[in-house]
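Case study 2.
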Amino acid sequence: IGTLYFIFGFWSGICGLFMSVIIRLELMQPGNVFMSGQSYNVIVTNHAFMM
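Prediction:
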């Protein structure tokens, strides 16, 4: 159980970090840089659930 908890925690931390970087890159400049508004909302929501 402890090993599975550690692996899942590490995996969700990496995914959350990756999504945080995407959010920061998108907010770096005004307007849509990489994705549409809907995709940005999906990334922000997934980041909130992961972290």
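DSSP finds two helices and no strands in the chain.
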